[in-house]
Amino acid sequence: MTIASALAGCATPRPRATWQPDDAVMAALPDWMQRAQVPAVSMAVLEGGELAWQHQQGLANAQTGQALAPQALFEAASLTKPVFAWLALQQASEGRLRLDEPLVDTLRPAWLDDHPWSARITARHVLCHTSGLPNWRREPMKETLRPAFEPGTRLSYSGEAFFWLQFVVEQRSGLSLPRLAQRALFEPAGLRDSDLAWSEEVARRAVWGHAAPQAAPLVPLPRQMMREAWLQALPLARAWGRPLADWRWDDAQRAFAALGGSVPSAAVAWPGDLMSNAAASLRCTAADYARFLRVLMPMARGPHLAPAWQRLHTEPQFETRPPWSAKTLGWNREQTAIGPLLYHAGNNANQFRAFALADVARGHALVVLTNGGGGDALCQAVVRAATGLALQAFEP
């Protein structure tokens, strides 16, 4: 029996005043984790814009039996994108980035195709996934990056577009993405357990990824792609006296060349795999991601975007399934029985699954991070049971 079928016998969900998982959810959680082949979970809840509850349980590594360390770090996967979008809007609010200026006016990557549409892509297109670019190229050392349609006309989810915009933001700010995030967001918002770069400390605290039930057994572990890539880069960072948190594209290119015959490989297909990534490289606890969500909520303490920029981050910018679904600059937005909600899901290598849901007006949020490829079903089960909401986001 799947998690979905196990929940099918429950009463019709009704929105709940609190999103903290109740005793019934917590009692069912171990069974849900087993069914989904998820060794560990990290969860957190905001109420009234403040952290009200946090919980983690399970194994960091099912093969070795390694238990979760306090404040264990999970790959947040694409939950990185809303964080980067907030940083991009913060930089725009200070005049360092223009949302409607073609990105090529600042930086044209060598691998960008010369199609006329490429020269029209802007930060606004990137942040609401209307750039026309693919998610990721299969062979980035051989393929050019080419839009499939005119920018701004329809949706095409693209992590690689975020990566390009990252280069633009780094050039305009003069800082690597991890350093910019620490200075502009993580430190002011009190995020002590979040990092966009790899280090010995991150390696010590980071959990391991596990395959989805339909893909492979729980053990042995699958290839740990991002961990493997960055562990190749760490010795070079030490030898050069330049931490990975400072690396930008030139550093990654130099490292790729230095690795010689060991690349390309399954884990390192091109230099971009050796540096922080605005689309997917955040590692954090669920509680820290909830602290990030506080910056969206007017009643909460912490840094905030000015109202006009906040609206771009949380209000509809491109309709996806009118009238109930839209893209903001950084989030998906769904109209529900209790009003509009923001959400985003994440999936790294089908080994880490994550989900975040926020009610900005009421200051509610729920974050679920997992270290299993089956974690999507677990996230959905927790969100449905804890919030009482049957989200269209979970429908096919």
UniProtKB/TrEMBL annotation:
User: What is the species of this protein?
Assistant: Ideonella alba
Q: What is this protein called?
A: Beta-lactamase family protein
Using the record's annotation, list all stretches that form the Beta-lactamase-related domain.
33-375
Fetch the Pfam families from UniProt: Beta-lactamase
